[in-house]
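Continuing the batch. This is chain 6 of the set; chains 1 through 5 are on the previous pages. Same settings as before, nothing changed between runs. Recording input and output for traceability.
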Amino acid sequence: MGYYPSPLLRLIEQLSKLPGIGKKTATRLALHIFYMPHKQASALASSILEVKEKIVFCSSCFGLADTDPCNLCTSPERDHTLLCVVERPDDLVAIENSGAYNGLYHVLRGALSPLDGIGPDDLRINELLARVRQGKIKEVILATNTNVEGEATASYLAQLLQDYPVHVSRIASGIPMGGDVKYTDNVTLKHSIEKRHEFKS
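Output for chain 6:
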């Protein structure tokens, strides 16, 4: 790669540090940026700096925001008696994009993982309990991932929330829409059977 000018090599190096971006992809992106009109490249650089300078974690839900508290937490159109607990901000976005939920959120900023040294004190669990103590929340929906860490986190939170007058629910898990039973892994199939519900036509 020594035949590329130094500024281009530095850009390739920085881009290759992004997750999922290898040297070849970083080189292709760097060359694309070089061939961009100056105005477009400047807008890209400005948007990167703007994200670093203006995006914060909401002090209430711990989601990403450009105001604090965020627009979701302050919206009078949301159901403030419902609280959906997710692991990360992108989980919040995924649920929001589904259009199936209109309550508030709480982002844990991770999941319990003793092997990785992540315990209860590393997550926003105390803040979750503080919100529940305020008495406005009637139901807490545990929407952590359905992997080992997510299930362990949901179980731990359910135990903690037993001491509070709130209904605790867990998102359904099982065979995805359009999926074939014969191609479904054993763990997912087990969950599907265990979490079956009454069929209403």
